[in-house]
Structure formats: C-alpha cells, structure tokens
Amino acid sequence: MIFIGKDFRHLLYSTVLMLVISGEVKAQLDWPVIRQQHKPWTRWWWEGSAVDEKGLTWNLDQYQKAGLGGVEITPIYGIYGEEKNFVDFLSPRWMQLFVHTLKESKRLGLGVDLANGTGWPFGGPWVADADASKAVFHKVYTLEAGNQLAEPVIFEREGLVRTANGKKTGIGAIEHPISQNKNLQELALDQVQFPGKLKLVTLMAYSADIKSLDLTDKVNTAGFLQWAPPAGSGKWTLYALFEGLHGKMVERAAPGGEGYAIDHFSKKAAQNYFRRFDEAFKGYDISYLRSFFNDSYEVDDAGGEANWTPEFFDEFNKRKGYDLRTELPALLSKSNNERSARVVYDYRSVIDELLLENFTGEWKKWGEGKGKMLRNQSHGSPANTLDLYSVVDIPETEGNDVLRFKFATSAANVTGKALVSSESATWLNEHFLSSWADVKKALDLFFLGGVNHVFYHGTEYSPQEAKWPGCLFLPAPHFQPENPQWRHFHALNQYVARVQSFLQSGQPDNDILLYYPIADRYSQPGNTLLQHFDGMEKNFVNTDFEHVSKEMI
Fold first, then answer.
1. pLDDT tens figures, 5-63
2. d(Cα 219, Cα 235) in Å, to the nearest integer?
3. What integer pLDDT is reported at residue 503 of this predicted model?
4. In the predicted model, is pLDDT for residue 336 greater than 80?
5. Contact 545/517 with Cβ under 8 angstroms?
6. Which DSSP letter does residue 475 get?
7. Rounded to whole angstroms, how far apart are CA atoms 140 and 425?
8. Residue 133 has pLDDT above 70, yes or no
9. What is the C-alpha to C-alpha distance for residues 452 and 153, in angstroms, rounded to an integer?
10. Cβ proximity of 248 and 259 under 8 Å
C-alpha cells in the first residue's frame, strides 16, 4: 500500500483542479446509457398459471413504468379457490399465454427468461421412475466359513410422505403411481417413498485378506444366497447395495408440473426431460426469449440423499480405472484412514463429473440448440460449484453470505462472463413491512460481492381487478403494484440501474486468487456420502485453510 504525505496531497488536488478548470480533464464522467439489462429484473410467479392475456399486458405495463428491465417466468402452486382458472404447464393454452407474454414484453422493451420447470428442482409428471432421482442403501452381513446365510438378502423400505405445506399425510392416502392422484396441488408433496422391497444392485463378499467376490448372481428370486464360504477361509463380511427411488418431488409445483425430480447424474434422464420442452415449443415463436433458468440444487433437502444413478458402477470404472464394488468397505466406512479417504474422494469426484457433464453440460447443449442463454444457481450442489458456474452464461447466487456470492462472481470473472445475477431480497420481513431502504441494503451487499444483474424475489402475477392485497406468495417483501410503497419503487430501480450500468461495463480487478480446496473436502469422512456446497463460509472455515483471513477472499 502506498501512503501519500499531506503536502503532496494538497499539491495533487491543486493540480487536478487546475486541469479541470483549464478543460484538460472533464469535470464529470459521462454516465453509461441505461439499457434493459442494466435495470433490475424480477422473478415473476405465475400462481397456478392462472393468467390471461388482459392481465398479463396490464402487469407487464406496470413493471415497465416502475423501471424494471425484465421478468423471469416461474409457474408455482395455485391459489386455493382459483382452481377453475389453473392452466397446466406447457399445455397448448399455456404456450399461447407464454407467446403473448413474449410479444407484449418485446413491445414494452422488457426482457424475458423462463424457468425450465415449475417450482424446484427440475422434474414433472413426464419424469418416469427410470429417470427420477435415486438413492442407494446398504446392509452388512457376517458369515463364517462353511455356513449358509440364514436370512434373505433383502431391503424392505417403509413408506414415507413429506409435504411442503406441513400437513401430515399417510402413505396409504397416496395413489401409485403419483400421476394417478387427482389432488396433487392440495397434497403439496415434497417427497414420496412407497413401501416395498428395493432392487438388489450388488452383493459383495470380503475375506480377512480383503479378497472380494461378486455374489450378486447367486441370490435367488426369494433373496436367499446360494453360496457358502469355502472351508478354512475364516470369517467373511458381505455388503449388499440396494437401489430405490429417492422420491424427491418438484417442490411448490404448478399445475401440470407435479412429479418426481430428475436424476441429475443421468444423461438419458436430462435428455428425456428437455425433450418435453421441445415438444411443447413446436409451432410457437419463442425467439424473443433471452434465457432459461434453473433454481438451486435442492434435491437433498428432503430425507436421505439422492446419491446414486443406475450406471454409476460403469461410470466409476471408466473414470477411475477400478471396480468400486471391490472397495465397498472403504466407501461405506466412517473411519478416517487413508484407504477410505481415497475411495470416498473417488466416489464424490465421479458424482461431481456426472452432475457437471450429464446435467449441466446437457442442459447447456440443449439451450444452445435453442439459441438461448442459461442462468443457473449452482450452489447447494454435490459438486465443484466453480466448475458448474463456468458452464452456464449467467451464474446466479442468493442469500446474504458474501463468500457464497464470490463463488458465482469468481467463476464469472475467471471465465469471462459479463453478467452475474442474484435472487435478491428473498426474505427480509413479512409482506408490506420491508421498506425500500431494507431492500437497498440487501442489494448493496450483492454489489459488494460482485453481482451486477439483480433479480427481485419476487413479483406475483395479480389481475388488476383483484381485491387488495392482490395475489400473495410466501416470500416477502411483495414487489408488485398492490404494495403501498409501489409508487416509490421506480426510485429504487433507478438507483439499481445506475449502479449496474457501471458494474456491467467494468472488468474484474483482483489482487488474490485463492482456490477452494475441493479435494480436501471430498476426502473427509462423514455420515453421508455426498457433500453439498451451499453455506460457503461454513464450508470454507472447516477446511485446513481456516487460518486465512476472510478479508482475503
């Protein structure tokens, strides 16, 4: 750091003043021209997709007059009592409303993004069991030489129902398959696991000298093992892996969007998922759409982990050069020995690669095929967040953790991306209780963290004739015309636009590059197979780098 003496500072100021007076230096910088992308955008909730052309036009007109730059359409669960007005996601009528929105937005100079699903995470009624998120379970048996295993090799799972609205619902009230339930909006399912026996993936036997045998084909249809350890071979330990549906549903799904979340590690699942959009878009002009959007990875906020995909053993062998089935004791051990650390690292790094290639990469290829950009919230994923952000066009962050922001902004800076967006002011206070000053404070933190493309969270579609307070959605602070503070909203938006006009025209200027120790994290043992990178400050200080000052990040 260079320190300038008092006398020299006076001389410097006097010299600059004389240059300004003489016309050698302009007294004020030219402010960048405010464009659509400089203005704040908003997530636009279509509750139940109960929208119509008249209401869409009126809402968009209000947003444009208030100084918003664009909207991100995210269909969400419907309002009780409005069922007759619900429109199924991606239905022909929904597409007509979507195209009308694109036309009106273009007329008004507003941008439009679209979430590739309803609620979160990606999923829907077209996601078959084969493409839904999976979990792996295990049992351990011991067997002495010469003895048969008396019990069957089976895993009987009990039923589970979790709802997003907190209502207690028994598994007996849920029809199988999920699509047979006619009241999915009312049920608000978050996770469903039907009871029954799970599929046996593999049964491996290990002797004291770590010799392994694959016994999977020696288990009969009733689950009994038709094998006994040879005499004199001592004690054997048997590991059985079972595969089942994780059961995560699309949370807060809109009508026509209810169903299982996809298997994010399966290329086929991703391709099948996006094919539904190809079918829906046929015959409609969506050329004005700017970008598709994906919310944060919130699969494992349900019970258990979505930690498996049917092709995992093959993918692991291809990428790591050995059969993971020979190392199940090391994988499933909670000890901190070197062998276990290496195997656990390999497992997690393969999960990382599958999520990067088979979901994020496939989504990117699909979006490019449509000529569209991608906006993605990569945080919360069981993979290297920096890598995931590097694939998409607009990394997006959220919350109030500056270090979490910097994972999105750093990826953008390193890979030359012009925009970093934020899901902003999601939870400040209850409806109507958050002032624009409260919102500004939240936004300034994003700006300090390197964000330059703010998205409010959020604005509910509400028809003009709706009684006050209009349509409401759970997160505050209610960025819509029914808010008594709306008449001053333009002032906040003007401030944001002026700040972002400079931030978007700037270049990163950093003194320190610090790489997150992902390999160390992947090697750490624990009670779960996956590690999720979300609350970044907590994750960072739990590493060996906790002596590093946060001011250096």
1. 444 445 444 544 444 445 554 545 678 899 999 999 999 999 999 999 999 999 999 99
2. 20
3. 96
4. no
5. yes
6. S
7. 48
8. yes
9. 56
10. no
- CA atoms within a 13 Å half-sphere pointing along the CA-CB vector of 31: 11
Select the more confidently predicted residue: 355 or 32. 355
Q: How far apart are CA 361 and CA 376, in angstroms?
A: 12
> 508 vs 155, which has greater pLDDT?
155
Pick left, alpha or beta for residue 293 (phi over 0 → left; psi -120 to 50 → alpha; otherwise beta): beta
Nearest to 256 by CA among 416, 368, 93: 93
Integer Cα distance of 476 and 469 in angstroms: 13
**251, amino acid identity:** E
Task: Assess contact for 424 and 444: CB atoms under 8 A.
Answer: no
Amino acid in the structure at residue 304: G
Query: How many residues are present in the chain?
Result: 553
pLDDT band at 400 (very low <50, low <70, confident <90, very high): very high
Three-state DSSP class for 311? Answer: coil
Which token pair is 486?
A: 């709306």
Q: Are 478 and 431 in contact (CB under 8 A)?
A: yes
- Residue 295 and residue 380 in contact, taking contact as beta carbons nearer than 8 Å: no
Burial 256-284 (b: 16+ CB within 10 A, else e): bbbbbbbbbbbbebbebbbebbeebbeee
DSSP classification of residue 365: H
Please answer whether residues 496 and 40 qualify as being in contact, where contact means their C-beta atoms are separated by less than 8 angstroms: yes
Residue 34, SS3 per DSSP: coil
Lowest mean pLDDT across 10-14, 105-109, 519-523 = 10-14
Q: Say how far apart CA 116 and CA 270 lie, in whole Å.
A: 12
Contact 198, 160 (CB under 8 A): no
117 Rama class: left (phi>0) / alpha (psi -120 to 50) / beta: left
Pair of tokens at residue 175: 């029809």
% of the chain residues with pLDDT over 70: 91
- CA–CA distance, 301 with 384 (Å, rounded to integer): 18
Amino acid letter, residue 418: A
Residue 90 has which token pair?
């991606």
Nearest of 13, 30, 74 to residue 49 by alpha carbon: 74
Q: How far apart are CA 20 and CA 460, in angstroms?
A: 50
User: What residues contact residue 323 under an 8 Å CB cut-off, 6+ apart?
Assistant: 313, 316, 317
Q: Model pTM?
A: 0.91
Residue ranges with strand state E in 132-263: 134-144, 156-157, 160-163, 189-193, 196-197, 199-206, 212-214, 235-245, 260-261
Cβ 111 vs Cβ 40: under 8 Å: no
Whether the per-residue pLDDT at 259 is higher than 80: the answer is yes
CA distance 298 to 529: 16
Number of H helices, E strands in the chain: 15, 18
Cα 517 to Cα 546: distance, rounded to the nearest angstrom: 11
